[in-house]
Amino acid sequence: xxxxxxxxxxxxxxxxxxxxxxxxxxxxxxxxxxxxxxxxxxxxxxxxxxxxxxxxxxxxxxxxxxxxxxxxxxxxxxxxxxxxxxxxxxxxxxxxxxxxxxxxxxxxxxxxxxxxxxxxxxxxxxxxxxxxxxxxxxxxxxxxxxxxxxxxxxxxxxxxxxxxxxxxxxxxxxxxxxxxxxxxxxxxxxxxxxxxxxxxxxxxxxxxxxxxxxxxxxxxxxxxxxxxxxxxxxxxxxxxxxxxxxxxxxxxxxxxxxxxxxxxxxxxxxxxxxxxxxxxxxxxxxxxxxxxxxxxxxxxxxxxx
Length: 305
Known about the structure:
The chain has helices at about 1-10, 25-45, 50-70, 295-305; strands at about 85-90, 95-105, 110-115, 125-130, 140-145, 150-155, 165-175, 175-190, 190-195, 200, 210-215, 220-225, 230-235, 250-260, 265-270. By secondary structure, it is an alpha+beta fold. It has a domain at about 140-300. Strands 5, 6, 7, 8, 9 and 11 form a six-stranded antiparallel β-sheet that branches. It has a five-stranded mixed β-sheet with strand order 10-15-14-13-12, with no helix packed on it. It has a four-stranded antiparallel β-sheet with strand order 1-2-3-4, with helices on one face. A hairpin with a 5-residue loop joins strand 2 (about 95-105) and strand 3 (about 110-115). Residues about 15-20, about 280-285 and about 285-305 have low confidence and may be disordered.
């Protein structure tokens, strides 16, 4: 199995191939065929009840995706029908990130992804989930080979002159807790670097910010472009006696954030959400979770809006 995984990873290594700004008619037809296959495989690695079948579908998905991205002009093809992966472009269109997850039988997740550069030749960097081996993720600088895996739903660039991009992502975790992350992506000699000391305040300087809370809870993590502010629920234990047990943590109806100032993200507490415009940013939630909101949830949602 390790040899199979290694072989598939090699397929994602930076590749050079002729490319066009836009795919021609033949290329578009080819990409549509690939997209149809990817859609079927994506549904299988999310929904199949058998873990081995989910993993096999994922391996086939990776091989098919790489073949699709080798088609000239693939960067500009949206793959709109692939609902089981996140595919988002950087604000300056320098690159796009594809990311997805596969559920393990024990309730944990394995993340997969790649960064495709907007370049004259195909440049593709694999994202290899290294999460279990990162002992201190908030203070680690890694590369695409040691990725703190997540499924991103927002790329932020409040200043076009910035040497980095800020990513918001859903991480899943275990049968007890869920995680979300604020990640930082930059490039050194053209290669991806993950993590940077740009989060200040709240007791320390962080290279990325990780949130963990009860799996049955729902956490707000969004960006307000008007205020250059990342807003999130303040998390607290449901009972003071369970402080430190993350499976008891959830939103406490107060809000904190990171405000962009002079190239850094500065922590701010006790935000008044009534004074922050709603930009309707997407929030990624566990696709397996289908909860019927109770009156408290509905009231809280109205408060956020």
